């Protein structure tokens, strides 16, 4: 019997599809992405993104039950991965990054090497480069920090910033963007300049917004772009503090896409590093804004994906959770008031500078006003509270919000105690456990204010460090279904390489 060719083709395709599904591989995962984005929200687990979504929903909803999805939490595939390191259930960014980039467990503090610091591993980014793809690394913290470093460096200690920077400057990657190096001339300022080293290795170094904006594809073989208006540790400013003339994480991501796009494809790792830093400091509003800045960067990749949907893979995850952040506080029981966080106008880091300005004898009244302006907290008399309660009962929402921000007597006492601690030289402050639990080694008054505002909103924290909870993995595009299920963070390395056809 004569069989039409189209029937044969259909039959073969059907058999192959069934066979692939029998081995746990769907038709979607058979697609090999040409453009691969790996987004890493440092310190970001499910609760950080969920807090942002509830916050966004609360701004326009008085019932406190609405939320607005982030771009990546709407991806069609979601998995969950464990985060432990080789010797501890709670990891740091170096060991977690090594798991993602190199597929191996190691101890905290080690950059893409074994726990002894003697055996180097090869990162997924280096393998992508060896296979003809262009490679870009972007971060909102210093580019020699642990997470970006694991993709291009091998070091026994994450604290060897200068040595890590040397490996960046001498690498064959195509694009670096975001924060600058911590010690461009070495910690003592007596070593070869990293930027000059990078330029001698073919990098075009850009440190102004005008130069950055004028960069075009094919103009330079290799580009290293960093923000000229840097905070103290060479990281970008918190998004809450960033001004319009400063570059954002999304800006660096979009420029990377423009410069890396080529016929052989590219691999780009983008880190939202200051989500972690804000969580370490238990600053919910700074966490929210930097998570939104991270989401904006993901949006840049989605824009590219929409132009190349069958050739692009976007994976978004976190390396660990930071701060033990949770929705719910004993003092507010079953209620939340996330909308009051909108009253905060600066990060704890910027408010530290305000406190410094009062260390030399500024008026207490002036500091009280500064607290209200920066965080929205208000100091009210009993009669003022009574008047607001009457207005709130009458349906005035502004009065209701102001009441939620009113300080109780015990909260005022906590602020007074923290104020005197902040006015005490750091070398003379107590180092006992109780003081650490209150302030975590940060500026006491800033921490006391953050905790009070966060708790009034219905947010609580358990630590100033990392926690050991699993983190979600979101994926969209070619081979995205590979990232569903529950697995270890080391498995992401193999999943990426397998998707790219390099394993």
Round the mean pLDDT to the nearest integer and report it: 92
Major beta sheet summary = 10 strands, mixed
- The helix tally amounts to 19
- Proportion of residues in β-strands: 5-15%
Q: Estimate the global geometry from the Cα principal axes.
A: globular
Helix content: 40-55%
Main sheet: strand order: 5-6-4-3-7-1-8-13-2-14
Structural class: alpha/beta
How many beta-strand elements?
Answer: 14
Radius of gyration, in Å, reads: 25 Å
Low-confidence region ranges: 1-29
Q: Termini distance?
A: 43 Å
Secondary structure topology:
Blueprint: H1 5-22, E1 35-41, H2 46-58, E2 77-82, H3 93-102, H4 124-130, E3 134-139, H5 146-152, H6 161-169, E4 175-178, H7 194-200, E5 203-206, H8 209-214, E6 222-226, H9 249-260, E7 266-272, H10 274-280, H11 284-307, E8 312-318, E9 321-322, E10 326-327, H12 348-358, H13 364-375, H14 382-393, H15 397-404, H16 409-422, H17 433-439, H18 444-457, E11 459-460, E12 466-467, E13 471-477, E14 485-488, H19 491-499
Parallel strand pairs: 1-7, 1-8, 2-14, 3-4, 3-7, 4-6, 5-6
Antiparallel strand pairs: 2-13, 8-13, 9-12, 10-11
Helix pairs in contact: 2-11, 3-5, 6-7, 9-11, 10-11, 12-13, 12-18, 14-15, 16-18
């Amino acid at each position: 019997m004569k069989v039409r060719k189209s029937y044969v083709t259909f039959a073969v395709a059907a058999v192959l599809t069934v066979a692939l599904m029998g081995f746990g591989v769907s038709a979607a995962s058979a697609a090999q992405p040409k453009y691969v984005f790996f987004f890493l929200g440092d310190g970001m687990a499910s609760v950080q993104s969920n807090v942002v979504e509830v916050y966004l929903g609360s701004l326009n909803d008085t019932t406190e039950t609405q939320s607005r999805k982030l771009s990546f939490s709407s991806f069609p595939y979601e998995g969950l991965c464990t985060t432990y390191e080789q010797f501890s259930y709670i990891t740091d960014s170096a060991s977690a990054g090594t798991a993602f980039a190199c597929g191996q467990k190691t101890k905290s503090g080690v950059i893409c090497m074994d726990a002894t610091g003697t055996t180097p591993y090869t990162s997924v980014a280096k393998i992508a480069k060896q296979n003809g793809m262009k490679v870009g690394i972007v971060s909102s913290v210093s580019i020699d920090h642990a997470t970006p470093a694991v993709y291009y460096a091998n070091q026994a200690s994450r604290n060897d910033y200068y040595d890590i920077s040397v490996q960046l400057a001498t690498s064959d990657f195509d694009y670096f963007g975001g924060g600058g190096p911590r010690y461009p001339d070495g910690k003592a300022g007596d070593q070869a300049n990293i930027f000059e080293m990078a330029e001698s290795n073919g990098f075009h170094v850009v440190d102004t917004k005008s130069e950055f904006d004028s960069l075009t594809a094919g103009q330079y073989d290799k580009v290293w772009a960093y923000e000229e208006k840097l905070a103290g540790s060479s990281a970008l400013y918190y998004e809450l503090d960033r001004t319009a003339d400063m570059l954002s994480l999304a800006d660096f991501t979009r420029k990377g896409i423009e410069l890396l796009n080529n016929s052989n494809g590219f691999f780009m790792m983008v880190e939202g590093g200051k989500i972690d830093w804000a969580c370490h400091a238990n600053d919910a509003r700074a966490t929210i804004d930097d998570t939104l800045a991270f989401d904006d960067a993901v949006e840049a990749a989605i824009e590219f994906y929409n132009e190349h949907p069958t050739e692009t893979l976007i994976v978004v995850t976190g390396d660990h959770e930071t701060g033990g952040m949770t929705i719910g506080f004993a003092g507010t029981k079953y209620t939340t008031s996330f909308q009051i966080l909108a009253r905060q106008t600066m990060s704890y880091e910027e408010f530290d500078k305000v406190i410094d300005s009062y260390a030399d004898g500024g008026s207490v009244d002036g500091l009280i006003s500064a607290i209200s302006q920066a965080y929205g907290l208000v100091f009210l008399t009993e009669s003022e509270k009574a008047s607001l309660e009457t207005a709130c009962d009458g349906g005035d929402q502004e009065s209701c919000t102001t009441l939620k921000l009113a300080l109780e007597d015990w909260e005022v006492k906590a602020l007074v105690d923290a104020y005197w601690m902040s006015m005490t030289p750091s070398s003379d402050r107590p180092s006992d456990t109780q003081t650490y639990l209150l302030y975590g080694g940060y500026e006491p008054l800033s921490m006391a204010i953050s905790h009070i505002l966060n708790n009034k909103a219905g947010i609580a924290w358990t630590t100033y460090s990392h926690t050991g909870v699993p983190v979600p993995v979101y994926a969209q595009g070619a081979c995205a279904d590979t990232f569903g299920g529950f697995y270890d963070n080391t498995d992401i390395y193999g999943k990426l390489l397998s998707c790219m056809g390099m394993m």
